[in-house]
């Protein structure tokens, strides 16, 4: 009976170790840099948008206006809003100066303040209607 209990406890311990290690590795992957596709919008107007479909109707000219640009920028993916860090705000202004679309791919990672630490912004390819 003691041997069976010892085997069961050992198996449980190994299982817990594997699960904990796997979750830790998955969490580290989420902290790494990755691409997100969505709609680039200023925070002033973006906070009023329910989702990416609504935000897609927002104009580039509005994003570049004084108060809107000064509020910073965010990426809306579905109904999730991801605000940019300072470097991302600078990159967003530079992107919008030459942009034809606010549909973008942002490369970056989440920082400690739940903002995207942006490393690049580029136009997302538009899907062609058939």
| Approximate strand percentage | 25-35%
Sum up the overall morphology in one term: elongated
Estimate percent helicity. 40-55%
Tell me the distance between the termini.
69 Å
List keywords for this structure.
alpha+beta; 5 strands; 130 residues; 2 domains
Describe the protein in words.
- The protein is α+β, with helices and mostly antiparallel strands and 130 residues long.
- It folds into two domains: 1-31; 32-123, no CATH class.
- Helices cover 47% and strands 26% of the residues.
- The radius of gyration is 21 Å and the shape is elongated.
What's the structural blueprint in terms of helices and strands?
Layout: H1 2-31, E1 34-42, H2 43-46, H3 52-55, H4 60-64, H5 66-70, E2 73-77, E3 80-83, H6 86-98, E4 103-110, E5 116-123
Antiparallel strand pairs: 1-2, 1-4, 2-3, 4-5
Outline of the structure:
The protein has 130 residues and is of the alpha+beta class.
